[in-house]
Structure formats: C-alpha cells, structure tokens
Amino acid sequence: MRIDIITVQPGLLESPFSHSILKRAQTKGLLEVHTHNLRDYSNLKHKQVDDYQFGGGAGMVMMLEPMVNAIETLQSKVQYDEVIYLTPDGETLNQKIANQLSLKGNLLLLCGHYKGIDERIRTHFVTKEISIGDYVLSGGELAAAVLVDAIGRLIPGVLNDETSALLDSFQDNLLAPPVYTRPEEFRGWKVPDVLLSGDHKKIDNWRHDQALERTKARRPDLL
Ligand code: ADE
Description:
The chain is an alpha/beta fold. Helix 3 links the parallel strand 5 and strand 6. Strands 2-1-6-5-7 form a five-stranded parallel β-sheet. The protein has a two-stranded antiparallel sheet with strand order 3-4. The chain folds into two domains: 151 residues, Alpha/beta knot (3-Layer(aba) Sandwich); 56 residues, Trp Operon Repressor, Chain A (Orthogonal Bundle), CATH 1.10.1270. The protein has seven helices and nine strands, in the order E-H-E-E-E-H-E-H-E-H-E-H-H-E-E-H.
C-alpha cells in the first residue's frame, strides 16, 4: 500500500512512521508513506498557502491553488483509491473503516490547518472525510498519523502473528478480554486458573465471556 500525505507541517509526521510497527511495515516493503510539503506547491510570494476567509471572520483558510497543484501533481503519477480529508466534521473513524481502507492500494491524505481548506477542494477532489473523534486538533497531521497506524497494522503480513489483529478490541464489535503474563502470582494477585489449565476450548470460551462482559459494562452501544 502507498499513502501520500499533503501537509504544511511535514515535521509533525516524521516520528510516527519511523518506529515500531509502521517502521516494520515499510522495511518489509508492505507500506510506503510519502509526505509532501504544501508550501512546495505554492506559486505565491513567501510560499503562501492560506488567506483570509470571504465574508469575514477570524481565522485563515487554506487556499485552493497550492492544494489543487499538489493533488493534481500527485494524481498524475499515482492512481488513488481515495482522497481523504482529515477533519472534525468527517465520519468518525472506527475499526470497520480501518479494515476497509487497509484493503486499498493507494491513498492520498490531506491535512487541514487554520479554519480548514477551501470548500471547493472538498467538493471536487475529496472522496472521503474522516474525523478521529469529537474534539478539535490544531491540524490534521496527528489525525493522519492515527489513521495510518490503524490501517498500517491491518495490512496482511505487517503483524508477525496475523491472528493478533483479529483478536483486537472492536474486530468483532467486542472489546478485548483481559490479558496476563508472568508471574502467576504477585502480592497474592493470581492469574485466573482457566488460563493456566492448558484447555484451549475452555480458554477460548472464558475469553469470549470476558470480552462480552467488558463490552456490556463499558461500551453497551457496541452490542
Ligand atoms: N483536524 C482537526 N481536528 C480533527 C479531528 N478530530 N479529526 C480529524 N482531523 C482533525
């Protein structure tokens, strides 16, 4: 999978993709992430990318031309399955959307700043709008990093033990069950006997029951 990201703050995206699982995905050749500085696509003085909004009001708006220039330059080289704008008024990201996007070949992500991007970009180029939650970030970069992480770990071959993504919270609309590791007992706090029983059928049933209970208690809306 190839993911291109257009941003005015490329520095904000350096760290998330150079560690852990996303780094491994790229080393294995399963994921390519390219960031593009929007300012490089501005033909204006001082590489301007934002301007006052028509109608007045506080806050700048990201201009049409540099963004269109960037999108069309990239589209002339790569055929994108989706052009995604990260925005608090988009569809809220969930595991189902992450699963669907992990099956795509090429994605183009647009990060907004200030008051957002000129609406005509959304109308004419954007195919999907995603929010990572009901709160406002300073820009779309951290949201893009969250989205790429959620998608990247689902690409087949990225996780060592592929079943581990299948047992994640939300994969079957259930939260994940509790997990334990050594020691078996610490300060009198014991690991549930069933997990030490070696009976895999019993363990599977216990995990499912625990997942169900946890979901009922914490996120009944998922059931
Ligand atoms: N940009 C600013 N806030 C955001 C959010 N909650 N989700 C996605 N993009 C954003």
